[in-house]
Write a structure and sequence with these properties.
The complex is a heterodimer of chains A (122) and B (676). With 122 residues, chain A is of the alpha/beta class. Chain A starts with a strand and ends in a 7-residue tail after the last helix. Chain A is built from 4 helices and 5 strands. Chain A has one domain: STAS domain (Transcription Regulator spoIIAA, 2-Layer Sandwich), CATH 3.30.750. Chain B has 5 domains: 133 residues, Up-down Bundle (Four Helix Bundle (Hemerythrin (Met), subunit A)); 113 residues, 2-Layer Sandwich (Alpha-Beta Plaits); 58 residues; 180 residues, Histidine kinase-like ATPase, C-terminal domain (Heat Shock Protein 90, 2-Layer Sandwich), CATH 3.30.565.10; 160 residues, CheA-289, Domain 4 (OB fold (Dihydrolipoamide Acetyltransferase, E2P)), CATH 2.40.50. In chain B, 42% of the residues lie in helices and 22% in strands. Chain B has 21 helices and 23 strands. The longest helix of chain B has 28 residues. With 676 residues, chain B is of the alpha+beta class. Classes of the chains: A alpha/beta (122), B alpha+beta (676). At the A-B interface, helix 1, helix 2 and helix 3 of A face helix 6 and strand 2 of B.
């Protein structure tokens, strides 16, 4: 595991990097109140190199404000030819994405989550 | 930018109470109409709206209770549960609890209302196996037709998130409305991450659903965010659903709903009151101009007076229209009584039907707000003491079911609210006995009907075992009377033994304007409410007698002796007429009793704008407010009830002294004719 950006004891968001890839970890409820920090972290991930993995293993709920930050990150990475994937998505989050018509955009790959030990990352 | 959500809370609470009233009325109606699809839809929509709003504002307890309530209602309208009395009673109980919960949440005490038991009871009904072959017709979409597809285009404004709204919660509710054929999120407006404002909303959605009950159900979801988004709902037959353009017919069908939405707006009462206050000022200013013009002579006078006539007409028009903003239908207070009667009759084992008419009659908001308690008391009285038990009614040759009529109607510039029942009528003899026992009347006194009725409203008259045993209310008939008096109203009772009783409350349309009689004492002008005036007379010689060596006075009007007050002495006004035969006696009526007030002159009748003395100065005994006259002078508006109290006190003193003198001298009351 590489560096971990953190500036407090309880952090719902953080970016981990090992130089080859970025991992954006989200925890708990991520809503409009956290959207500004999520964007900052997403910009950090974007500034790094390699693919970006969004780890939702400990995310309980993402609202529209949080989701559009991830969508913007996704679009930007694709434009730069970098990979973007979402892992370890909880069924409740998956349900929400399906209901709001964003399931495809965030199609998670459960295998990736298992391989990377998604649930244990945080 | 931080948005204070609290300013939206009050709207939510107000609307929640309206929805609760709808639910309650619907549930009561369900008992007589059974599984009525449209009625069930109405109740469901009301519960659904409360749930939607509570979710948006994070009132979790309200959302939890309404969620399970909504599930039960959904089963009912789907025919998977039957409307049985026990279930209706449970739903009514849940509605009551929800009302308590909303009230508690409003005062930030949501935790004080326990809901677990009711939630569990509602959930238990859901675990019951669905009835075989229940009527599915109730589920049929009401507005769109079974095969129709509803297309919803939802575009939140950029500031949507800043209002604390969660777009996904709304969309989840949308998805629950029917079968989702398509859910599309438009991301085309999303900027690059660097340029993205995380608090601005860039996304929009299009949904296609089959089986949406009605367009109103969709709008209900967006009710609290309608100003923060663009919403378009189109319903198209399924065969043409693939077409991107909405069918013209459906667009037409939507138009009336949009018009209805625009036909009313929610305005804070303070804004309306400020407007009313300004119009009041305008009326006063106009009266001042009229007065100045009336004293003018010479060229141009006719033109000025003509122009003024137009101003007067327009001002009155404007005043009436502005006043009408505050007017609400009495139905808003009447709608609580079907439940009151239903519950009370049930607990007393009586059969009672409440018939309401004139619910559209309008009254000032402040009058309506203070009408609830007295009316509740009178209606409970009718059911409790007026209507007989079914057995007794049958014995008397009446139908088992008793009827209480609640009517509102206009009569001579006032609104009358009448509560009448076909019960046994007031028990004259018991009231009389009680009054004798309490020393209020002598055992041998001959009492007319009015005297008997007046006794009911006497403070201290223990009504508990006579007519007003209303458990738990802690309100007596004297309080009813006081409430009506405070509204400048009057209450009249009539009763026929064996046929029923009737209470008529006469109320002014508004508390902001008063029809009054201007009178003069010395250099001061006073206003008496016209409703309280019996007559004004110049006293005939010898009609005024002094009692108690000049300490008290009575006025003899056609053989009737009424206490007389001199306003100049009461209020310490100099320069008033001292010879009573040079003045005028205004006979006022309060509590069915008369008393006279001696004044210098009667100036005339006028409509005055009431200004609060309490707010602008302080509370003054026997004065209910003030107004500004056309010449700019302030005139006090007299409180007739208070004046009456003073008069009664004087009379009691007079009678006591007379009795004392009687005992001492064995003579009649010490009464001497006043020397003119």
């Amino acid at each position: 595991m590489g560096t971990c950006r953190t500036d407090g004891s309880v952090q719902p968001l953080r970016v981990e990097t090992d130089g080859q890839q970025q991992r954006l970890c989200l925890e708990g409820v991520v809503n409009a109140a956290q959207a500004r920090r999520l964007r900052e972290e997403a910009l950090v991930a974007l500034a790094g190199a390699g693919p970006v993995t969004v780890d939702l293993a400990r995310a309980e709920y993402l609202d529209g404000a949080a989701m559009q930050v991830l969508l913007a990150l996704h679009m930007e990475l694709v434009a730069r030819g970098r990979a973007f994937k979402v892992v370890a998505m909880a069924p409740s989050v998956e349900d929400t994405l399906r209901v709001v018509g964003l399931a495809e955009a965030f199609a998670a790959d459960p295998r990736t989550a298992l391989e990377s030990g998604g649930g244990e990352l945080s | 930018m931080k948005v204070d959500l609290k300013r939206f809370h009050e709207t939510f609470f107000e609307e929640a109470f309206e929805h609760l009233a709808t639910m309650e009325a619907g549930l009561l109606e369900l008992e007589t109409r059974g599984d009525d699809a449209e009625l069930l839809n109405t109740i469901f929509r009301a519960a659904h709206s409360i749930k939607g709003g509570s979710g948006s504002f994070g009132f979790t307890e309200i959302a939890r209770l309404t969620h399970v309530l909504e599930n039960v209602l959904d089963r009912l309208r789907g025919g998977r549960l039957a409307t049985e009395p026990a279930l209706t009673a449970l739903l009514l109980k849940a509605t009551d609890l929800l009302r308590d919960l909303v009230e508690a949440t409003r005062s930030e005490q949501a935790g004080t209302v326990p809901i677990d038991e009711t939630v569990a009871a509602l959930e238990a009904t859901l675990s019951v196996e669905p009835a075989a072959a229940g009527p599915a017709s109730a589920r049929a979409p009401a507005g769109a037709g079974p095969g129709a597809v509803c297309e919803i285009s939802f575009r939140p404004h950029a500031g949507f998130f800043r209002q604390g709204q969660d777009v996904f919660l709304l969309l989840q509710e949308v998805a629950e409305l029917g079968e989702v054929l398509e859910a599309k999120c438009d991301r085309s407006r999303l900027p690059a991450l660097e340029a993205l404002d995380p608090e601005a909303c860039y996304l929009s959605w299009t949904y296609r659903l089959r089986g949406v009950t009605s367009e109103a159900a969709v709008r209900d979801i967006f009710m609290f965010v309608e100003d923060a988004c663009d919403l378009m709902i189109t319903t198209v037959a399924e065969t043409t659903a693939s077409s991107s353009a909405a069918a013209p017919a459906s667009a037409g069908a939507l138009a009336p709903k949009r018009q209805a939405d625009a036909s009313s707006i929610r305005v804070p009462t303070e804004k309306v009151d400020a407007l009313i206050n300004l119009v009041g000022e305008l009326v006063i200013a106009q009266a001042m101009v009229s007065q100045v013009a009336s004293g003018m002579t010479g060229e141009g006078l006719i033109q000025i007076q003509e122009a003024l006539g137009m101003v007067v007409r327009s001002t009155r028009d404007l005043q009436e229209r502005v006043m009408s903003i505050r007017m609400l239908p009495v139905g808003s207070v009447f709608n609580r009584f079907p439940r009151t009667v239903h519950d009370l009759a049930l607990s007393l084992g009586k059969h009672v039907r409440l018939e309401i008419s004139g619910a559209d009659t309008e009254l000032d908001k402040s009058v309506i707000e203070r009408l609830g308690d007295p009316l509740t008391h009178l209606i409970r009285n009718s059911v409790d003491h007026g209507i007989e038990s079914p057995e007794e009614r049958v014995r008397c040759g009446k139908p088992e079911e008793g009827v209480v009529h609640l009517r509102a109607f206009h009569e001579g510039g006032s609104v009358v609210i009448e509560i009448a029942d076909d019960g046994k009528g007031l028990d004259r003899e018991r009231i009389r006995q009680k009054a004798v026992a309490q020393g209020l009347v002598r055992a041998d006194a001959v009492l007319a009907d009015e005297d008997i009725h007046a006794l009911l409203f006497r403070p201290g008259f223990s009504t508990a075992t006579v007519v007003t045993d209303v458990s738990g209310r802690g309100v007596g008939m004297d309080v009813v009377k006081r409430n009506v008096d405070a509204l400048n109203g009057a209450i009249i009772v009539s009763s026929v033994a064996g046929q029923g009783s009737r209470f008529r409350i006469r109320l002014p349309l508004t508390l902001a304007i008063l029809d009054g009689l201007s009178i003069q004492v010395g250099r001061e002008i006073f206003i008496f409410p016209l409703l309280a005036i019996a007559q004004s007379v110049r006293p005939a010689p010898g009609a005024i007698k002094t009692v108690l060596g000049g300490r008290g006075e009575i006025f003899v009007l056609r053989g009737e002796q009424v206490p007389l007050l001199r306003l100049d002495r009461l209020l310490g006004i100099a320069g008033a007429v001292t010879d009573p035969y040079q003045g005028i006696v205004v006979v006022l009526e309060s509590d069915s009793c008369r008393f006279g007030v001696l004044v210098d002159d009667v100036l005339g009748q006028s409509q005055v704008v009431i200004k609060s003395l309490e707010q602008n100065y302080r509370k003054v005994d026997a004065v209910m407010g003030a107004t500004i006259m056309g010449d700019g002078r302030v005139a006090l508006i007299m409180d007739v009830v208070e004046l009456h109290r003073i008069a009664v006190r004087r009379q009691d003193e007079t009678e006591a002294a007379a009795a004392e003198a009687d005992a001492e001298t064995g003579a009649e009351a010490v009464v001497t004719a006043s020397v003119p």
